[in-house]
Amino acid sequence: MSDPKPNATRRTLLKGAAAAGGALGFPFVQAQEKITLRYLGTAVNQDKEIADKFKADTGITIDYIPVTTDDVTKRAVTAPNSFDLIDTEFFSLKKIIPSGNLLGIDTTRIKNASKITTLFTKGEINGKKVGDQGTAPKKVMYLEAPTSKVFAKEPTRYMTLIPTVYNADTLGIRPDLIKRPIESWKELLNPEFKGRASILNIPSIGIMDAAMVVEALGLHKYPDKGNMTRPEIDLTIKTLIEAKKAGQFRALWKDFNESVNLMASGEVVIQSMWSPAVTAVRTKGIACTFQPLKEGYRAWASGFGVPKTVHGKKADAVYEFINWFLDGWAGAYLNRQGYYSAVLETAKAKMAPYEWAYWMEGKPAAQDIKSPHGDLLAKAGSVRDGGSYETRMGAIACWNAVMDENAYMVQKWNEFVAA
Amino acid sequence: MTRERGGIAAWLQAAPYALVLVMFLVVPLVLVVVVSFWHATDYDLIPAFSVQNYLDAFSGCASTTELCVTFKTYLSTLQFCLLVWAITLAIGFAVAYFLAFHVRSVGTQTLLFIVCTVPFWTSNVIRMISWIPLLGRNGLINEALRGIGLIHAPIEWLLFSDFSVVLAFVHLYTMFMIVPIFNSMMRIDRALIEAARDAGASGWQTVWNVVLPLSRTGIVIGSIFVVTIVMGDFVTIGVMGGQQIASVGKIIQVQTSYLQFPAAAANAVMLLIVTLLMIFGLTRLVDLRKEL
């Protein structure tokens, strides 16, 4: 810095820096083989351990973009360039596929494609049909051609999404505060729990929970809860509004963590809930049951999709990730959280026999059950809520859905929130 | 000639900022207005000219028996607006008055001013969420009241109620009142206060007849801040109201997340008009350009 002309110094310095940057930076970009995949999905499915393990196995970095369920769909439709891999729910496909932003996944490139559970491919478990009201995955699973914008009626070579996790949702309760058995969805609106109940404020899912309640109360029998007519929507919302005006709900929740806080703090004793939220409450040492109910479960499933903007090496990396995901390690990881994985066979190989017996076969735990993070989830001898895979998933009543009257439903839902 | 030259130079000087405003304010606003007349499906926007989105927003509003959702929502938002405005004004004026007239040294003034900004050192959401363990059914206040035997059952309306929403708003936005009012007060000639006292005015009379009129500009600017923020807010109302209280912002947010952009745009246009009318009303009270 001994240059007598300070101005010149600054300029030469900048020039030099630019030149150095150009000389060093460009070959660096060319030479690098490192690939980063931008993974768009909800935070619930984006575990750091999964990304770390995949990186250790393959050297490919996963860059999580966590947004809400609704925002995943919104970005898939409006900004398909902003991600390389999408993890979305099957019901969103009714909005995403017609936009033409996803490319059918070539199952010949997916090693375990034929082992994906029949729940997705045929809508049955061990040969027994399960409920298919709403957007059941089998209805939106296949495309005629990779670029097709309509769903195929029969299985084809091209899948819309490769399933990753799925589960059957029900009501979560605080058994220590309720102190009596809960057996039906109608308990959500039981005045006994006035000011201590909650329902989730995601219209497309909340309306389904409400429909389960309406049916359990004997007010109406829906031909298809996942595709209501306008009068059916009116009836469902009217029931909710009456309950809200009577002070039934302590709060509504929109975010997974909100439901955990409501339950853990005791503000709410009965509410719509998701399985990892129940686990989260339990790891705080607070009793919480994911209560099986006689009317059955509301199921959901999500899977990986490939946007059509991904090409070349990146596309190969996306397929590599999907194959890795179905290969067992990730499946076992998810099963240990109470979810279910798409290819059960590979996951079983990576789980201890006592873990498999507890999570999948509904047997009493032979020893303490721990979460993947090492927290105690269930003591030896306890049994999983809802029993075995077959009992739980066999009792599916309906699937998360997008209705034909979606716009009307959202408008009516806003009325409920405003009431 | 020279005047005209100066004119051009002035235009040039204003150009960069004008361009930024055009690109990031005017163009998006025009787009919002245009889209509000479009149609949409679940995955597509269809250019059209239809007032259907506006009609949908007011559906049921002709009924005389019950208020429609839109009117009810605006009414509730306006109610919050009024309450929050009144409370922040009272607190903001008091704090600013204390800082401007009772604290003598500039050092102490600065220090106290920084103390006022402490709540802003953490994020908005955290500031809101931290109320929950305090106000909840098993929260600090309820536990304390039960502990000293004042109540037997927890007070329910402390959290997830209109009360908690207003409380959070006041906590978040009083600062926006304090700053402009304090600024106006610092410009008041101290001789005027002395003159009022010499003329026999009591402390309250001085505040009411001298300080208050002269801090009008600050009050109006602070009011504009508070009114516009509260009118557009949906996060505070959502978190503190337990998602059970409607707000105009929340309706727009739900609609955009379901890809109903035209309907959301129509609601946004209406919200904009209402807010602009309120600001227009406020600026009638003070000629801001002259006062600043």
How would you sum up this structure, described in words?
The complex is a heterodimer of chains A (419) and B (292). With 419 residues, chain A is α/β, with parallel strands linked by helices. Helix content of chain A is 38%, strand content 18%. In chain A, strands 1, 2, 3, 4, 10, 16, 17 and 20 form an eight-stranded mixed β-sheet that branches. In chain B, a hairpin with a 4-residue loop joins strand 1 (39-40) and strand 2 (45-46). Chain A binds chain B through residues 68, 70-71, 73-74, 77-78, 94-96, 98-99, 195, 201, 203-204, 244, 249-254, 258, 261, 265-267, 402, 406-407, 410-411, 413-415, 417-418, and chain B through 41-44, 56, 59, 69, 72-73, 76, 132-133, 136-138, 156, 159-160, 238, 242-246, 250-251, 254-260, 263.
What descriptive keywords fit this protein?
heterodimer, A: 419 residues, alpha/beta, D-Maltodextrin-Binding Protein, domain 2, 2 domains, eight-stranded mixed beta sheet, 20 strands, disordered N terminus, B: 292 residues, mainly alpha, MetI-like fold, 2 strands
